[in-house]
């Protein structure tokens, strides 16, 4: 049976300000009701397969676990990378884990942030790829190009192999416009999707040939892994010694077993705002809109309004994205340069690069409503049955006002219930905890006051989510 491997790392910086470091695009509902990760999980459902293995960053572990849970999946395994080392090591980790149960296990390697419109056709391509993989081939899915795209790498096909497959003749980097047009005319080139199907055994054999140090480091990282709730946490020092390289460079461009199966299923990696516009429903003027949007004499726009009315007059070919704390306005043909804004935000250590005003935690979410030099106001929502860590702060006091639901508050040795329209005060240095014992979400307003209000001023004594 196939073992799905979903790579859920990446920052999605070209989709800022919607996609950010702590909540990148794979966890956002960009093309459907569910997030990109959840849509990926859904398209696997009709396939007969073993438990899904997800590989993600340490800082995204609770997002992944919650979104998997929302899909009703209880047997998924989540592997945590202490830092990203590109795709070849990530797949090696999955292959090593799968090989423990079955060396001939077939790995269907997918990215968490891709769109595939024709799921039935995707399944058909997987069936074709499986036949080749069972014969020892390392199969990649080549997307049948619809236009001369310069933002993707390409795969040139060679001789026929099987019913619909081909040997890979070569991989080529992102071309210029003229070269991409030539590729389109020949019909021998596919977009490189970054999706694969092969046996764990064959992949490890080839990786051992070309990158033995990578296999050695991944084995050591898994051998030293520890179990934490629903997660497997790799040995950090061992994994950091692993070379960082893509699967294309490490294996696919060097192996004699590379095959390609065409995929014509409405695929997109949603790698930019213009790519999202291309796959979005548009009105008669070519405008794709989300949220409270009012347009006048405007054409070929992508407008995403999260929290307030966005109006445009007499403009065209723009991307306008509004969030609670940032607004992006960009020419549609220059949206690749958004990553330069992200780089500046990171260099200036601005929070808009890392997180939204709304920050998700394993227990719920908080929204930073307002702040000043010595105060900060948050709206906190605690899920039913959830509990924040037992903690204390060296530099701030907190006032909590319950808006809805019931809070179970512990301060020192005293525990009490605080209900709607009631408040409670937590002095500086006092050990305390907050819990929602009810059946509905707990909402409260938190007012912090003190000399330092950073999130790192938390000393945790006990935490059910393993964050001590």
Describe the fold and architecture.
The structure is a single chain. By secondary structure, this protein is an alpha/beta fold. It folds into three domains: 2-268, Spore Coat Polysaccharide Biosynthesis Protein SpsA, Chain A (Alpha-Beta Complex), CATH 3.90.550; 273-348, no CATH class; 358-462, Jelly Rolls, CATH 2.60.120.10. The chain has twelve helices and 30 strands. The chain starts with a strand and ends in a 6-residue tail after the last strand. The relative contact order is 0.11.
The fraction of residues assigned to DSSP E strands is 25-35%
Please give the order of strands in the largest beta sheet: 20-21-22-29-24-27
Count of alpha and pi helical runs: 12
The residue fraction in helices comes out at 10-25%
Task: Determine the structural class based on helices, strands and strand pairing.
Answer: alpha/beta
Mean pLDDT: 94
The CATH topology of the largest domain is given as Spore Coat Polysaccharide Biosynthesis Protein SpsA, Chain A
CATH homologous superfamily placement of the largest domain: Spore Coat Polysaccharide Biosynthesis Protein SpsA, Chain A
Rounded radius of gyration (Å)? 24 Å
The CATH first-level class of the largest domain comes to Alpha Beta
Unreliable sequence segments: none
The total strand number stands at 30
Overall, the morphology is: globular
Summarize the main sheet.
Answer: 6 strands, antiparallel
Number of domains: 3
CATH architecture of the largest domain, by name, is Alpha-Beta Complex
> What separation lies between the terminal Cα atoms?
39 Å
Coiled coil: 328-355
Domain MannoseP isomerase/GMP-like beta-helix: 294-345
EC number: 2.7.7.13
Organism: Halomonas saccharevitans
